Amino acid sequence: MNIKWNADKYTSDFSFVHKHGLGVTELIEKQGGTAVDLGCGNGALTKVLHDKGFDVIGLDASDEMLEKAKENNPGLEFRKADATDFRLEKPVDLIFSNAVFHWIDREKHPQMLKCVYDALNFGGEFVFEFGGRGNAHKIHSELAKVFAKHGYEYKTKYYFAGVGDYAPLVEQAGFTVRYAALFDRQTELVGENGLEEWIRMFLQFPFSVIKDSAEADEIIAEAVDELKSELYINGKWYADYMRIRMRAVKD
Ligand code: BEZ
Question: What residue's CA is closest to ligand 1, atom 7?
């Protein structure tokens, strides 16, 4: 999926993405070695992996994000790469990824998992989290209603997998899944316009069918208004996230 990222805004207003990613790094059992942060974004978690003792390379497909990652983390290595089509000159001990795989089209996951498998040493760990089944369901279903009212179809391409879908794919790629979970994570958004900003940042794909920006603004306002009773709690906006996490080993 081609997304035009605003790396500055992502870093200032969506830092909760990498803050939650800290919990994913706790699943890593290796104490050090070589690593890849796949879909490293602004490099915040690449730095965490470095601080944990890994000799790490951040890979990302977005030039804007790579620029930010390099600016924020001088001395760390970042490279442009497509998660579904990358190769390393030398396999690594850990491949880590946070909040990336739901952006990858469902049918491309087997090829991505093959790239990950080929890029790991035997005994290497693959640790990741992404949006799981039911992710942001309240937001998507409200937007689908408002889109329909305006005569549009709400189409998404995000892949929010369940454990029962994804663990078999990871095992078919050759890994042994050692840990897997799907869980709720009601996620606090930033500021009085938190939900509106979140929709503008993350839902560019479904909104691409609406050419009139005033109408897009109206749709967002109507959906936000409807969602207020459920997702605005004690003066704060929340997104109804679900997350899937796994730790798998190439053995
Ligand atoms: C997420 O990070 O949970 C997300 C990304 C894109 C669309 C919806 C949710």
Answer: 202
